[in-house]
Design goal:
By secondary structure, the chain is α/β, with parallel strands linked by helices. Helix content is 31%, strand content 23%. The chain has 12 helices and 12 strands. The strands form 2 sheets. An 8-stranded mixed β-sheet has the order 6-7-8-3-9-10-12-11. Strands 2-1-4-5 form a 4-stranded antiparallel β-sheet, with helices on one face. The structure holds adenosine-5'-triphosphate (ATP) and magnesium ion.
């Protein structure tokens, strides 16, 4: 088997906040992403998706100290134990990030050309002409119309959809091996969303880019992610090939998540059931399953005993004491 581009093993992250709280956010995260593959990471707000992305990038809020154990292997090299210079090199050239809101990641007073080529100018000096030329090519590659003019513009002169394309061009400029896209289209309207996701798909396929697509919307992963990891309470509670997870969910949380998504086929439901209860308070960690307080199948065992890994298929697993049986699984 070839080495995955990203191989995360038993990753735990605890954040130390400025007011001296210790928040154990990520618990035993294990996942892989291969070259040219898209892994969808899905979960409700607060499930730890962005902390996961920030842990991979080794960046956290300025005032927050993070303690991380486990392994984050990028093409076989562990980012957590690499010497600082080596880690900076691996992160600088290997991984790029596309953020949710391009307005917060773009600098309002710097021209687009300089922002798009920033990861290149960190490595070698480029003249103004070279920067404009390269930025124009990069903007054309992400389908920005009139790229030469847009390269000279400032972020506020562009629409949200175009700004997100600029964010993608900047991410791709350094020729990364891994792209982390954290809710890349949440700030965009539905039609623009699709074109931006199609664009990411195209570059993933043509560049063989490993892509981690983070979203709270499982519906967005159909036809885009080959595999899905479902997160809840800082854990991966279910993972497997997209069709297996969405057609035959084994974890009650995944089943509930799927019931809350509008269906493309089948009878139209007038109201979509929301999952009752609220997500877990991560400052008060639960023994056993974090979903137990909201789970209709939960028994006392679920709040006291560590979760077994249930094999629902050859590459499909769920961490649950009472997984759905094949007959129950039709969402
Ligand atoms: N810098 C921080 N300091 C303290 N707590 C944090 C920090 N960053 C994240 N958290 C907490 O970690 C948990 C996971 O947050 P995270 O941002 O990863 O969720 P998410 O799954 O990305 O949610 P969303 O869908 O809203 O983006 C939350 O409870 C959040 O409050
Ligand atoms: Mg987030």
């Amino acid at each position: 088997m070839t080495t995955p581009v990203l191989d995360i093993r038993s990753l735990d992250t605890t954040l130390h906040t400025p007011d001296d709280r210790r928040l154990h956010i990520l618990h035993g995260i294990t996942l892989t992403v291969g070259a040219g593959e898209c892994l969808g990471v899905v979960g409700e707000s607060g499930s730890g998706k962005s902390v996961l992305a920030r842990t991979v990038l080794c960046v956290h809020a300025r005032t927050t100290r993070a303690e991380t154990t486990g392994q984050i292997l990028l093409n076989g090299e562990n980012l957590l134990t690499a010497a600082p210079a080596r880690r900076a090199a691996l992160l600088g050239t290997g991984i790029a990030m596309v953020h949710q809101d391009p307005m917060t990641s773009l600098n309002p007073v710097v021209r687009i050309a300089d922002q798009v080529t920033e990861s290149l100018t960190n490595r070698k000096r480029l003249t103004r002409r070279e920067r404009l030329h390269t930025a124009t090519e990069l903007l054309a590659a992400v389908d920005v119309p009139d790229p030469a003019r847009r390269a000279r513009a400032y972020p506020h002169e562009l629409s949200g959809g175009l700004r997100q394309r600029v964010g993608i061009a900047a991410a791709l400029a350094g020729d990364p091996v891994l792209l982390l896209a954290d809710e890349p289209t949440t700030a965009l309207d539905v039609t623009v969303q699709r074109t931006v996701l199609d664009l990411l798909d195209r570059h993933r396929a043509t560049r063989g880019l490993a892509t981690l697509l983070i979203t709270h919307d499982i519906g967005l992963l159909y036809g885009r992610a080959r595999r899905i990891a479902v997160m809840y309470g800082g854990r991966v509670v279910e993972s497997g090939p997209t069709e297996d997870v969405t057609d035959r969910p084994a974890h009650p949380y995944t089943a509930a998540l799927l019931r809350s998504v509008p269906r493309v086929t089948g009878p139209l439901r007038r109201t979509l059931p929301a999952i009752p209860g609220s997500p877990p308070d991560l400052s008060r960690p639960a023994a056993g399953c974090p979903f137990a307080p909201r789970c209709e199948r939960a028994e006392s065992l679920c709040t006291t005993t560590a979760l077994p890994v249930h094999r629902a298929g050859p590459a499909h697993t769920a961490s649950c004491h009472f997984p759905l049986t094949p007959l129950e699984r039709t969402p």
